[in-house]
Amino acid sequence: MRSWQHRPMPISTYPSGFAAQAMVLAAGRGERMRPLTDATPKPLLRVRGQPLMQWPMQALARGGFTRQLVNTAWLGEQIAAHFGERATWPGLPEVQVAYSHEGRDFGRALETAGGILRALPALEDVFWVVAGDVFAPDFVFSAEAVQRFAASGRQAHLWLVPNPPHNLKGDFGLAADGRVLNLPAGDAGRRCTFSTIALYRRSFFTRSDAPAPAGNPEGVAVPLAPMLRAAMDRGEVSGEVYTGAWTDVGTPERLAELNAASPTPSFSGLT
Questions:
Q1: Residue 251 has what DSSP assignment?
Q2: For the chain, which has fewer Cβ within 10 Å, the N-terminal or C-terminal residue?
Q3: What does pLDDT average to over the chain?
Q4: Collapsing DSSP states into helix, strand and coil, what is residue 82?
């Protein structure tokens, strides 16, 4: 068992007692999107009339998840300046936004699990995580999904998608009973792609063998995939396949395709 001697440093900006229902990941550099991301953080690139990360933020608000935490690194000050501490959009409830500024605190992003560990003191016991650079305009974040997951006893629930052209081999398998499987290399079982949309329990990140304590005071960079695969091997991860529109907006070409294919949204939001 690890023994952590450091008290977690506070998350960068959040009100006293704040407990986010969802975390939107927005700390990546967006190397494959350069030069578009040289002066603009990738999650603020515009898709169909609004910043890319605004799509999941609005979808969360539509589902009633109005306390959201955003982690930042590359040009993170632009994200905080854009959305502020309270975001409002026509027809949606006001969203309270808090920030975990990894770039300011550590000079770099902490990878996915490291960023979640950093933000953990400001997250609810069960919380959503979604990447701010994934476009899934019809995904429904529902209280019913949270309730089902909370009652399941699992540590994580993932939404998988059919494999896109850039990830034809997929990521994880899915058993008939809903368990997500860490299939060994060479296994012929069907794999799907992890959408980045998931529900987690805090306890997923606070095991005795966790690579950093809650709050991640040392700024340890921790990838999520190894933690997920280990939990799958313990039978602790469930999942389902989402067949709605979904795009990992990872290249300028995919961004251009999205913007060429569709009208401006009815929820135009911040400009």
A1: S
A2: N
A3: 89
A4: helix
